Every structure is written in structure tokens, then in C-alpha cells.
Amino acid sequence: NDDLTTSECEGVVIPSNTDLWINSKAGQELLVSGGDEIELEAMTKAPAQLGSVVLTSPGTLNHLTIVIHAVVYGGSRWFPELEPIEQATFQSLVAARDYGIKSLALPILGEVNGKCSLEQIAQAMWKGLHRFLKDFPEPKLEVVKIVIENGEALDHFFDAFSIAQEETQGS
Fold first, then answer.
1. DSSP state of 23
2. How many Å separate Cα 78 from the centre of its chain?
3. Are 48 and 54 in contact (CB under 8 A)?
4. 46: closest CA among 19, 67, 27?
5. Which residues are CB-neighbours of 91 under 8 A, at least 6 positions away?
6. Helices (H), strands (E): how many in the chain?
7. How far is Cα 105 from Cα 145, in angstroms, rounded to an integer?
8. With bands split at pLDDT 50, 70 and 90, how would you rate the model's confidence at 1?
9. Cβ-based neighbour number of residue 125 at 10 Å
10. Is the peptide bond before 47 cis (omega within 30 degrees of 0)?
């Protein structure tokens, strides 16, 4: 059962807010393993726009090349919105491609809350991935590993990806 800290990918994405604080479960696990310098470096680049990404070093996680902070939360609000999730997914993939890494671990970008269901988050992420593949037919990025630690969430994610894939078949 992989998580972001044990993934064999060269880069990882973590959800962040516009102040580049790391408050998600995935991000906290990364900080425990990689050190606070990951967040401190990110915060020197704040504020960031919703939907954008910020790149930092991986701290003490020597198996990683880069940490990509996907800005999906606004300020101190830890409630994601779908458009920034789609945009941050796309921007994360572009950043990984431009940085030259071949493999990327991507967690669920956003915590489930009253505004967004897991299915909606998965569909937004699918749209970002689909746009990336459409814009970059030869993406250079060989592996995108969706890291989901919860079995129930995995089932919902597969269902949502299937629906989103069907909706984007013609585009």
C-alpha cells in the first residue's frame, strides 16, 4: 500500500493553499518524512494563485527529485473548488513534464467536504489529465500514479474516472 512518501516516483504532488501551507493528510505525511523545509521553501514563494503549482525540493526524501505543490485551496479556507482542482492537476503534469521527470505520484487533490464530492474531485482531476494528454500527445511523462490510500475512495475514483472518460471521448 503505497503513499506519497514511499512511492517510487521521481516527483510527488501535494495539495496546498494559496499561502502554500500544507494541511492535507498527504502533505502532512510528506512533511513528517521529508522535513519542514519542504513547506518553509514553499512559503517563501507565497502567495500563489488558485489552480497554479509551485515546485520545491523534496527535503530529506532523497528518492524524490521534486515536490509539486498544487494550489487547490484559497487562503485559510480548506474547502476545494472544482475548477482549481482541474487546473492544478493539469499544471502539475505540465510542471513534471517541463522539469523532465518520468514518473509522478498524484494524490486526491482536495478533501471531501460539503462543496465537492469525491466523484466530483475525481472528474475534475480526470479533466486536467485529459487536457494534458490532448495538449501534449507525446507527454514525456511515462507514469502518473494516482495514490489513494482508502479502498472505498479507490472504488469511487474508478467510477468517476470511467464517467469522466466517457464524457470526454468525443473531445
1. -
2. 15
3. yes
4. 19
5. 51, 52, 53, 70, 128
6. 5, 5
7. 5
8. very low
9. 28
10. yes
CB atoms within 10 A of CB 62: 8
Single-letter code of the amino acid located at 91:
Q
pTM, two decimal places = 0.89
pLDDT at 170: 58
Report DSSP letters for 38-101, one per residue: HHHHHHTT----TT-EEEE--TT-TT-SEEEEEEEE-TT-----HHHHHHHHHHHHHHHHHHT-
H or E, element range at 144: strand 143-147
Q: What is the pLDDT of residue 167?
A: 73
CA–chain centroid gap for 94, Å, is 12
User: Which cell goes with 31?
Assistant: 512533511
Q: What's the sign of the alpha-carbon dihedral 85, 17, 113, 154?
A: positive
Residue 52: closest CA among 105, 118, 128: 128
d(CA 6, CA 2): 6
Cα 63 from Cα 11, distance rounded (Å): 9
**Amino acid at site 52:** S
Distance from C-alpha of 111 to C-alpha of 85, rounded to nearest angstrom:
11
